[in-house]
Amino acid sequence: MKRATLWIAVLAAFSTSSYAADEPLDELGLEDLVKTEITSVARKSQSLADVPAAVFVISADDIRRSGARALPDVLRMAPGIQVAQIDNGRYAVSVRGFNGRFTNKLQVLVDGRSVYSPYLQGSSGLGLQSLALDDIERVEVLRGSNSAAYGSRAFLGVVNIISRDPKDTQGLALRLGGGQNGIEDLFLRWGHASADLGLRVSADQRADDGLAGANGPARVRRLNALASLRLSQRDELELRAGLVEAQATRGFAGRDGNPLRDRSDTAQHLQFDWRRTLNADQELLARLSLSAEHYVDHFPYVLVPGLIIDFGGRAADQVLLLQHTVRLAPALRAVWGAEYRREEVRSQPVYNRSDAIRTEFARLFGNLEWHPARDWVLNAGSLFEHSSLSGDTLAPRLALNWHLAPGQTLRAGVSRAFRPPTTVEKYADTRYYHPVSHALLEITALASGRVGPESVLTHELGYLGDWPGLGLSADVRVFHEQVSDVIGAYRALPAPARRPYDYVNQDRFQIRGLEYQLSWRPWPGGQLMLNQTFTRIAGSYEFDANHA
Q1: Strands 90-95 and 107-110, how do they pair?
Q2: Is 196 exposed, middle or buried (0-12, 13-18, 19+ CB in 10 A)?
Q3: What is the dihedral angle through the alpha carbons of 249, 251, 255, 259, rounded to the nearest 10 degrees?
Q4: Mind listing the pLDDT tens digit for each residue in 443-472?
Q5: Using only C-alpha atoms, what is the Rg of the chain?
Q6: DSSP element (H, E) containing 60
Q7: What is the pLDDT of residues 460-517, one digit of tens each?
Q8: How many other C-beta atoms lie within 10 A of the C-beta of residue 521?
Q9: How far is it, in rounded angstroms, from Cα 418 to Cα 487?
Q10: Do you find a cis peptide bond into 494, omega within 30 degrees of 0?
């Protein structure tokens, strides 16, 4: 054994009020999930049968039963989601075949706050690890574009991570875990709840020696705090703060351009949510969130003594959201609002400048839910976005749901979504100079700035079925996506010498597929689940040999 002792998992829970408050949630079948309020699709609570898109819900009980130690591994349960551990401690989560090291086509929310990082080519990989699994109430995975509600980053889907309510996490909880491969996990939480106040503080660590044959050890540490205060009968204030630090060994022994080294990614955030209930049919939400990130990744390039290759830098964002939810009539509900997001990225090695690159997003959105008849639901929504990266875009969506029988729903929808270029794709200027003579050695990336947004037009059909007497449920989605102006890194041709990469809109794809989920509960406490995705991708490649 690698270590002198083998840790045995120890579970301990202490509560100042009731141990049952921290017991696993009741297992939910689809008949229960149909009644569960889904918040990720149209920025308002809707039943699973009424939402205008396919949603896969992962409950806290599903997370516990999965045996996973990291949320990206839990997402492997969702149809159409691909998860890759690209090196120790880092994950890439992609959708419907768009695999890559950066999660920049998927919007990830934690309690409504976007954890998209503008650093380098954009990613939500670190944000996916913002919360300990023990603090998660459920995860809603929207399996389709949703720029109509959340803007350009929701290009091919949304993952909404919802934390547990303080009243469900009262008292003191301790969890220790250990095992082979250097596993050393720790979770500690304290919670308190009363009629007007809820508090929770949790700290945890996930550590191991990494995948066999890979780089080396990895460790993730987190600290999260939540305070919920009822100010009056109509007003509620929530404050969230958190810190996540991911440290891992990256690279490979003997590779001059990618040697073994330690990498550190750190992110902090503050989030303020104020809700006011105007009356039984109206609610206002104001949100302010602040995030900051620091990435450390550098190594000496042995072929040029004294030359340091550096991928490090800093990023930050500030977001202000105002949202109004209103019931206009017994069969008509709407949510509308505005959002302003400002991002800053700073990296001298990547952008050849010491000042921060600032980008701004201004969004106006609205979503309408109308029940023209008892068995019909019409969802219509749109979002207008102005981005300093790509100008103006409009993302509409229209969906119709038909409850053809109790527990049986058909859905048809069409939507358009956009993804702006990342900071690297727009402003990259990566140069290497001789450490002594300061002579320019090479330019590896030089963005012309002429890149525009990607777009996708989606048509989909869905079916949601439930047979409670048999313990059987089904969720099926058939889709056709036309992805245009896909951004890629290319070198100008002809290229007698090695030329730097530029980022241009070059490719188009047609994606057709079928996703389904079958769930069977043959006895209380038992579940058999089958998820599968069939995807066919046809692409066209158009390369401009004169592009410079």
Answers
A1: unpaired
A2: exposed
A3: -40
A4: 889 999 999 999 999 999 999 999 988 999
A5: 24
A6: helix 60-66
A7: 999 999 998 899 999 999 999 999 999 888 876 555 567 888 999 988 989 999 999 9
A8: 19
A9: 12
A10: yes
How many other C-beta atoms are found inside a 10 Å radius of the C-beta of residue 515?
25
Q: How far apart are CA 48 and CA 38, in angstroms?
A: 6
Q: Tell me the CA distances in angstroms from 9 to 6, 184, 194, 402, 425, one per residue in order.
A: 10, 10, 32, 48, 45
Under 8 Å CB-to-CB from 13, ≥6 apart: which residues? Answer: 19, 22, 171, 172, 173, 174
Question: Distances in Å between the alpha carbon of 472 and those of 469, 515, 530?
Answer: 8, 17, 11
Write out the two tokens for 197.
């106040």
CB atoms within 10 A of CB 543: 11
> Is there a contact between 261 and 297 (Cβ–Cβ < 8 Å)?
yes
Within 8 A by CB and 6+ apart from 224, the residues are 130, 131, 132, 135, 200, 201, 202, 203, 240, 241, 242, 243
| pTM (2 d.p.) | 0.87
Residue with tokens 């992609």: 94
